[in-house]
């Protein structure tokens, strides 16, 4: 097939399923290196070709309609097919498609978006967020955080404060700093990571790290205590910051006990270290708030964002810079030798503004907090009666369940069986996208999902769990 026939003009995109799937797959494996992908394996199977999308559904080149319970990759908060966002991009491209903001220049959408974000970020404990630094992704934003935190302490005459503490199984991106901050052992194993002065503590995951009989509340306090122990081990005068996701996303939707964040706040306050809240997944309505630190009541100094700020329609990320850091950088710092070509990209910022307006108009954040989020929690909890489900929990519009061999003893399946992947396979076959993280199945649906669509999703989830159960019984893995 001639590759040029694959470059369809917009009007033809919806008919892409008529194109030759195998030819696309062949070109894909010949030329396109995918993120986090075993290419030999992919070449033998062929990638699924996603051709178009609307509301909460995507379609593949074979014509299958799939309910996307992962919002693309935790980002399409406003759902697919939102004309307002396409119009905003078109208008801005025709007005000013690009200009940099390096050399004493600015552009209107970037200024408007920074102002808007400052107004959406709640003030907690007298600390507000009046400043925003823009990037194009969550990874870049976390690189910015490392630079900013080090600069902050240098400017305060404490250059020995270099160490950033993070957590095992955290995800903070895939650049050198992002992957180092993250706590994914598989990522550290490739590329000699982490880079120096980044260290990790254990995650607050009651299911995996709780002691037998330990309450959530006791575990939450104990898990926060690991931060204090690490600060003392490193030497408090050398610690610059602690970074964490409000709820761990890519690690498997790990929701900390209620006692965790207040104790973390007490510890960072006691030792004077900066707190970075990585809200790339959790902000913009995902947990029923514009910013997730408000839900848990802690007071970060820096907040990483990306994904949902544009509902994933165009790449944009950034850092909300709290007063404590901004004051030092601005008043003492002079030039901060850091920035990206696309910092404050006018088109990305215009799309973000349209997305935030749309979310406000449709009340999506409130809906998740007061209506569809509680409904999802109620429906998801019903899955606990399924023989395979050891635990099922939600927080706003993220949810995770764990597949277990024995619910009473919490015995897990042999990891080699790949039970999560078996379940994920059934999801695709049944028209549902769910992520498998080991044997945890996770979702993060578009925030536009209605109660009726939640019901529709629950039918599919149960069907996939049943099919997985049948497979495991047939393989003699269960009674
Ligand atoms: N921080 C957090 C909390 C994230 O979830 C990033 C930073 C990095 O963002 P960028 O835009 O650079 O990708 C993320 C990204 C998964 C998965 O498998 C999750 C992410 C990215 C890719 C895969 O769940 N989150």
Instruction: List ligands, each type once.
Output: 3-[O-phosphonopyridoxyl]--amino-benzoic acid
Task: Spell out the CATH superfamily of the largest domain.
Answer: Type I PLP-dependent aspartate aminotransferase-like (Major domain)
- The Cα radius of gyration reads 23 Å
- Segments where pLDDT lies below 50 for 5+ residues? 1-14
Dominant shape: globular
* Category by helix and strand content: alpha/beta
CATH class division of the largest domain: Alpha Beta
> At CATH's second level, what is the architecture of the largest domain?
3-Layer(aba) Sandwich
Main sheet strand line-up:
4-10-9-8-7-5-6
How many strands? 15
Give an overview of the whole structure.
By secondary structure, the protein is an alpha/beta fold. It folds into two domains: 48-81 and 364-474, Alpha-Beta Complex (Aspartate Aminotransferase, domain 1), CATH 3.90.1150; 88-362, Aspartate Aminotransferase, domain 2, CATH 3.40.640.10. It is 41% helix and 14% strand. It has helices spanning 10-13, 21-31, 39-45, 71-74, 83-95, 108-120, 138-155, 176-181, 185-188, 206-209, 216-234, 260-271, 292-296, 323-332, 346-361, 364-370, 372-381, 419-429, 451-474, and strands at 50-54, 57-60, 65-68, 131-135, 163-167, 198-201, 239-244, 274-278, 302-305, 317-321, 389-395, 398-403, 432-433, 435-437, 440-443. The strands form three sheets. The chain has a seven-stranded mixed β-sheet, sandwiched between helices. Strands 1-2-3-13 form a four-stranded mixed β-sheet. Helix 5 runs antiparallel to helix 15 (346-361) and helix 17 (372-381) runs parallel beside helix 19. It starts with 9 loop residues before the first helix and ends in a 5-residue tail after the last helix. 3-[O-phosphonopyridoxyl]--amino-benzoic acid binds at residues 73, 137-139, 142, 171-173, 178, 245, 249-250, 278, 280-281, 306, 317, 435. 3-[O-phosphonopyridoxyl]--amino-benzoic acid (PXG) binds next to helix 7.
């Amino acid at each position: 097939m001639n590759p040029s026939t694959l470059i369809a003009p917009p009007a033809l995109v919806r008919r892409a399923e008529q194109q030759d799937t195998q030819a696309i797959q062949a070109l894909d494996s010949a030329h396109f290196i995918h993120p986090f992908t075993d290419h030999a394996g992919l070449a033998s199977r062929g990638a699924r070709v996603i051709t178009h999308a609307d509301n909460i559904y995507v379609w593949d080149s074979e014509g299958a309609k799939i309910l996307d319970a992962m919002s693309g990759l935790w980002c399409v908060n406003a759902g697919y097919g939102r004309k307002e966002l396409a119009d905003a991009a078109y208008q801005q491209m025709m007005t000013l498609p690009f200009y940099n903001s390096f050399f004493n220049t600015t552009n209107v959408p970037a200024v408007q978006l920074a102002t808007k974000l400052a107004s959406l970020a709640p003030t907690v404990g007298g600390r507000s967020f009046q400043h925003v630094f823009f990037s194009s992704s969550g990874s870049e934003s976390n690189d910015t955080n490392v630079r900013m935190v080090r600069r902050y302490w240098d400017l305060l005459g404490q250059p020995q404060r270099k160490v950033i503490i993070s957590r095992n199984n955290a995800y903070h991106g895939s650049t050198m700093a992002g992957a180092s901050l993250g706590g994914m052992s598989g990522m550290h194993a490739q590329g000699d990571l982490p880079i120096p002065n980044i260290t990790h503590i254990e995650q607050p995951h009651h299911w995996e790290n709780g002691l037998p009989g330990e309450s959530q509340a006791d575990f939450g306090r104990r898990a926060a205590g690991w931060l204090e122990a690490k600060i003392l081990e490193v030497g408090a005068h050398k610690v610059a910051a602690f970074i964490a996701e409000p709820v761990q996303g890519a690690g498997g939707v790990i929701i900390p006990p209620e006692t965790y964040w207040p104790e973390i706040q007490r510890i960072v306050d006691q030792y004077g270290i900066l707190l970075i809240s990585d809200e790339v997944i959790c902000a913009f309505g995902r947990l029923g708030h514009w910013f997730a630190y408000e839900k848990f009541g802690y007071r970060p100094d820096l907040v990483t964002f990306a994904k949902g700020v544009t509902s994933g329609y165009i790449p944009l990320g950034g850092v909300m810079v709290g007063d404590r850091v901004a004051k030092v950088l601005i008043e003492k710092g002079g030039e901060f030798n850091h920035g990206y070509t696309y910092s404050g990209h006018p088109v990305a910022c215009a799309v973000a503004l349209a997305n935030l307006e749309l979310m406000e108009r449709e009340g999506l954040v409130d809906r998740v907090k007061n209506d569809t989020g509680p409904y999802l929690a109620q429906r998801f909890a019903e899955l606990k009666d399924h023989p395979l489900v050891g635990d099922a929990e939600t927080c706003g519009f993220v949810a995770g369940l764990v597949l277990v061999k024995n619910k009473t003893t919490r015995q897990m399946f042999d990891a080699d069986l790949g039970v999560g992947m078996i379940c994920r396979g059934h999801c695709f076959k049944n028209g549902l996208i769910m992520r498998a993280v080991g044997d945890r199945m996770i979702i993060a649906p578009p925030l536009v999902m209605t109660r009726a669509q939640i019901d529709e999703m629950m039918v599919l989830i149960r069907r996939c769990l049943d099919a997985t159960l049948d497979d495991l019984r047939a393989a003699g893995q269960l009674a």
